Amino acid sequence: SISRLQLKTGESVSFETTERAGYLHVFGGSARVNSDYLLNGGDAIGAFKEPLQISVDEGELTALWFDLPAQ
């Protein structure tokens, strides 16, 4: 499935990917992922077998989340 994310300053969302894979594509704003990575518009990250925490430090985020079956 595909979900559109729209988050504002201070908001966050988590995705559990221990049994599934996922892919986040940012197309507006910026987001911090698992407190380790800062993604900006045009950036993307895949996740498999680890939870994914997406948070917005400032501004707004618009992104797509692709929930994919595990291989």
Gist of the model:
This protein has about 70 residues and is mostly beta strands. Helix content is about 0%, strand content about 65%.
Report on the architecture of this protein.
With 71 residues, the protein is mainly beta. Helices cover 0% and strands 66% of the residues. It has no helices and eight strands. It has strands at residues 2-8, 12-15, 20-28, 30-33, 37-40, 44-48, 52-55, 60-69. The strands form two sheets. Strands 1-8-3-6 form a four-stranded antiparallel beta sheet, with no helix packed on it. A four-stranded antiparallel beta sheet has the order 2-7-4-5, with no helix packed on it. The mean pLDDT is 91.
Please tally the β strands and state the result: 8
Number of helices: 0
The major beta sheet can be summarized as:
4 strands, antiparallel
- In terms of DSSP E residues, the strand content is over 45%
Distance between the amino and carboxyl termini: 15 Å
Broad structural category: mainly beta
Helix content: under 10%
Helix and strand pattern: EEEEEEEE
Oligomer: single chain
Q: If you average the pLDDT, what whole number results?
A: 91
- Poorly predicted runs of 5 or more residues: none
Radius of gyration over all CA atoms, rounded: 11 Å
